[in-house]
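Troubleshooting log. The previous structure file for this entry was overwritten by mistake, so regenerating from the original sequence record. Sequence copied from the archived sheet and checked twice against the printout by T.R.
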Amino acid sequence: MRLKITHRTEYRYDAPVQYLLQRLRLLPLSGRTQTVGSWAIKVESAREELRFSDHFGNDTRLVSAEGGQSVITVEASGEVTTHDTAGVTGPHQGFAPLWLFGQQTKLTAAGEGIRELAGTLGQGTEIERLHRLMGAIRERVAYRPGTTSVVTPAEEALALKSGVCQDHSHIFIATAVALGFPARYVSGYLMMDAAVEQAASHAWAEAYVVGLGWVAFDPANGISPDERYVRVATGRDYSDASPVSGILLGQAQEKLAVTVTVEQ
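Regenerated output below.
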C-alpha cells in the first residue's frame, strides 16, 4: 500500500522565546515492513544543529531557536510503500542490546495491577499469550483522550482503566517484560478508515519472540499492525521514541497545534 503522510506541528508563544532546543524523530526508515519513497522535514523559524542515528537506530535531529520568535513550525511529509508481514518486523538490530528491552523504566514499571494482568493470560504458545495480552488491555483500558499525559506510568493508566495509544503500549510493554519478553515502544502513523486528518501520530508495541524476532501488537485497535501502519521510531517507552521533545528557556507560555494526515 502506498501512503502519503503529512505531520505538521506548530508552536505559538505569548512572549519572545529566549532559547529553544527540540529533538525530532520524524523520519521513517526503509525495512521489512516499509519502503520510504520520499520524505522531507521542514523547520521554520529554527535551525538544524545536529543530525545523527541514536542508539535505538532512530534518525534524530536537533533544532534550536533564539532571538524572539513567536511561532515555530515543523513539518514532516512524504510517501511510504508498506508491506503486510502479519506483524513480524524481523530480527533485532542496532547498538542497543536486546537485554535492554527487558528492563523496566519509570513509564513501564510493573506494580500489582500489571502483575495481576500477567497472571490472567493462561498457558499456550508465546504468540498466543501475547495476543491474549493485547485483547485483555483493549477490554480493560478504554480509549479516552484527556485522562492521562505523556508522563503517566503504565500502572496508573491500568488503574484508571482509560488512556490513549501510548498508555495501551506502555501497559503492553510492562506486562510483556514481567512475563519475560523483551518489549519496546513504536511511534509512527496509522491510516484510519474513518478519517484522513488526525490530531496526533500513533503508537504501538513490539515483543521479541525467539524464532520470529520482533512482533508488533496494537492494543488500542486490537490487531497486529498491517500495511496501514508506518514505523518511525522505537525505544523502551514514549520518552525514547517521541516524535518531538525538547526544552524551552524563558517565561513564554507555549500553545501546541498538531495535525496529521495519512491517506492512500
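Residues 4 and 79 are 5 Å apart (CA to CA). Archived copy saved in two places this time.
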